[in-house]
């Protein structure tokens, strides 16, 4: 080999070594790049059962930044973005030498910037560092960060950062925030016109904002569409049609469905970024619209709340805390599904159900609706009238006060509280000890509490795990409130309760209530699958003269069922053990119920022995005054005598407690309990 060739080989070897050394040093330089944090705070989101957005929250810096994955964005938009911004994105390593050379050449030739040389990766580098492109040092830094990003992340991961961080005008960051603000939809399905606008906006997000300069926004969109047609991404006819599509001229508000519930969920778990719920966004929107309409003409302080649940699963499907989530005279920021209020007559079915369960009465038992006193407490009916004796079924349907208080007196008020708590309610009791007035609403409960109770009625008398999160509530116990026959009897009675004028509501068991002083109007109802509760009144608790549940809340209840489904699901058939007979076929003890201490004008009263007397011996003399002869005498429900005399001797009662009853010729009765020793 000649000396000349040896020299050439030597120079080549030195050059290759220098290049290799330079490459290694370059690789070390790139690898040593310190990257800024690649993750950023995103908006907390509350989602419905299908993942649909109910309500997002601003991040701490006041921006809307809704997280989205690569697969959550319309692929046609991504193809348009890459073609317009960086057509060799999938091939380069962060810097596109061809685009960079072209940009430099055009700038030198024309004396101004004609096209940019930045790749999408370089744009991501600028975004994550919040940098600029105006200085050479800034451009070099972007190039270095872009090279480092390409070595540490996949192409899809780099694009995902862009999709979540690109600016779209104002306080909008990321494509998902932009699509909700400009199109009221997520970015998974976009029209070509919508996709083109999203490609154009990040280039100059403030100058092209549709809410500030809709003409500039549309012009930039149309330029993207023209380029896509030229480059074959869009068919010319498709591009032409997209150009005729109206462009947004402003921003839409972000969804704020179930706003009260969303607030509660984020307060309960402030760390979670995503809150999944059991709600149905479509139904929630329907019922929020219903709520707004229900108070529109009812005065500027009238408020409403609605709760809907599937009682077969316990999942809440809609939760409307007020007519509107605003700081107005209605106090719309207050969640009235959680507010303690007087339930009025809505607890009456619980009293009757417990009485059925304990065998005190049957739906066909006759019960007295007459003036009666309980240690100075003399309940009156809503209309001030008394109806004499009538079946228990009818007494509940008419929501009479005297019969239900008489039953609660026999049951004991504490049993009502226990039933509420076993349903999952948390009643607030004024004074600490329950009295008979709790049957008529003398207690504090929430709409959620009552919905739990009525869900249990619908669920064969068993408590339901009412919840707004998908997972079962930890520690929940399905307590039994009453046997399934008693629960069925309740539903059978309430299903035939008279409806408000003009309302059908077939197949729905329901009960209304009005609290003392006209402060609260209630309507609670259920069918074979769903339970709905409605409250109306003023959030501050002041009276609304003339309101009552049947006239105000019940129409909203039945409208809510109409919006939920086209027809009611059938209530279940009676359990085999249900006693389906007339009053005459009932056991004698169930044919008639009389309260202790009944005070009927001119009716019979047991003069001796007094209530609670302790009698020594086997022979008992019982005396009656007032009332019309002849008299029928009963001991523990069994007849022991009949005649016109006002006293009778009863023998053979035996030791222990006995109930003594006298019934006069007009069917009026009196009863006392005594203890024989």
TrEMBL record:
<keyword id="KW-0378">Hydrolase</keyword>
<dbReference type="GO" id="GO:0030288">
    <property type="term" value="C:outer membrane-bounded periplasmic space"/>
</dbReference>
<feature type="signal peptide">
    <location>
        <begin position="1"/>
        <end position="20"/>
    </location>
</feature>
<keyword id="KW-0511">Multifunctional enzyme</keyword>
<dbReference type="InterPro" id="IPR050396">
    <property type="entry name" value="Glycosyltr_51/Transpeptidase"/>
</dbReference>
<dbReference type="GO" id="GO:0004180">
    <property type="term" value="F:carboxypeptidase activity"/>
</dbReference>
<dbReference type="GO" id="GO:0009252">
    <property type="term" value="P:peptidoglycan biosynthetic process"/>
</dbReference>
<dbReference type="GO" id="GO:0008955">
    <property type="term" value="F:peptidoglycan glycosyltransferase activity"/>
</dbReference>
<feature type="domain" description="Glycosyl transferase family 51">
    <location>
        <begin position="61"/>
        <end position="228"/>
    </location>
</feature>
<dbReference type="InterPro" id="IPR009647">
    <property type="entry name" value="PBP_C"/>
</dbReference>
<keyword id="KW-0121">Carboxypeptidase</keyword>
<dbReference type="GO" id="GO:0008658">
    <property type="term" value="F:penicillin binding"/>
</dbReference>
<dbReference type="InterPro" id="IPR012338">
    <property type="entry name" value="Beta-lactam/transpept-like"/>
</dbReference>
<keyword id="KW-0808">Transferase</keyword>
<dbReference type="Pfam" id="PF00905">
    <property type="entry name" value="Transpeptidase"/>
</dbReference>
<feature type="domain" description="Penicillin-binding protein transpeptidase">
    <location>
        <begin position="305"/>
        <end position="537"/>
    </location>
</feature>
<keyword id="KW-0328">Glycosyltransferase</keyword>
<dbReference type="InterPro" id="IPR001264">
    <property type="entry name" value="Glyco_trans_51"/>
</dbReference>
<protein>
    <recommendedName>
        <fullName>peptidoglycan glycosyltransferase</fullName>
        <ecNumber>2.4.99.28</ecNumber>
    </recommendedName>
</protein>
<dbReference type="InterPro" id="IPR001460">
    <property type="entry name" value="PCN-bd_Tpept"/>
</dbReference>
<comment type="similarity">
    <text>In the N-terminal section; belongs to the glycosyltransferase 51 family.</text>
</comment>
<feature type="domain" description="Penicillin-binding C-terminal">
    <location>
        <begin position="601"/>
        <end position="674"/>
    </location>
</feature>
<comment type="pathway">
    <text>Cell wall biogenesis; peptidoglycan biosynthesis.</text>
</comment>
<dbReference type="InterPro" id="IPR036950">
    <property type="entry name" value="PBP_transglycosylase"/>
</dbReference>
<keyword id="KW-0732">Signal</keyword>
<dbReference type="InterPro" id="IPR011815">
    <property type="entry name" value="PBP_1c"/>
</dbReference>
<dbReference type="Pfam" id="PF00912">
    <property type="entry name" value="Transgly"/>
</dbReference>
<comment type="similarity">
    <text>In the C-terminal section; belongs to the transpeptidase family.</text>
</comment>
<dbReference type="GO" id="GO:0006508">
    <property type="term" value="P:proteolysis"/>
</dbReference>
<dbReference type="Pfam" id="PF06832">
    <property type="entry name" value="BiPBP_C"/>
</dbReference>
<keyword id="KW-0645">Protease</keyword>
<dbReference type="InterPro" id="IPR023346">
    <property type="entry name" value="Lysozyme-like_dom_sf"/>
</dbReference>
